[in-house]
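Sequence only, no structure available. Ideas?
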Amino acid sequence: MPFPRATNSLLALARGLTLILVTATSLALPVRAADTSDAAAKAVVKGRALAELVRTQRPDRAAASRGILKTRTADGRRVSVPLEVRVEIDTHSWKTIYRASFLDGRVETLTVENLEDASPRFALRRATAGGQVTEIRPERAGQWFAPFAATDFWFVDLGMAFLHWPEQRWLGTETRRTRLCNMLESVNPTPAPGAYKRVVTWVDEKTAGIVRAEAYDAQDKLLKEFSPGSFAKVGTRYELRDMEIRNEQTDSRTTLVFEIDDPEKLGVKHLPANPN
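Reply:
I predicted one. Tokens follow.
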């Protein structure tokens, strides 16, 4: 579903949920290979570097935050589930822990362990109201296309696992939501039915944050869209108020609404083109 170095709890949370928070930081795309006249080869080299840049941004410190997952299901039902998120930092990894508490007493907890040089690891723990606990650790990539807490956020979204696929390609630049973005295409080497075949991501050129993402199915039809919602202005910085992930094929959608300390903070729909 998933910006610059963490400066507060929401930004630490952003590594797992790809949120947008803008500071004056400028993140330059590193050069990984000598110049070549082959445009396709250049696109691959730049794509790999961009994917690495986004997936290796670590939160600066541990953090905790709260929000609500609001889902409109495919049959039109509306379900709200309180969500707690913790970020834990280790020397060579960090964990984002999502804890959803259902009204009937059930609790579902997903732990995403982000590693520096490997795909993320997932652990899902389900507890019934009566205290019965089951835990699974999906290790195969095909098992990551499963929903968390019956929402449109899948494991692969929360762990941004597609940024670890071997084929990453830079598609050029495009302005989205007033932001100049690098377009990144991530291609799944084994696109099974129900999985993403490829993901196109719009990455903010200045902050390396994800402004938009589109996921396509095994038949190359649009399956899911991710986009941030509105923002609260805090001094010169913008904090994400909400974000949405939508399943275009089932017409379901889930919005994650964050708790904002001061609800009277200025709300804006689009970020300025040149933040200071």
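Confidence is low (pLDDT under 50) at residues 1-27.
Hope that gets you unstuck.
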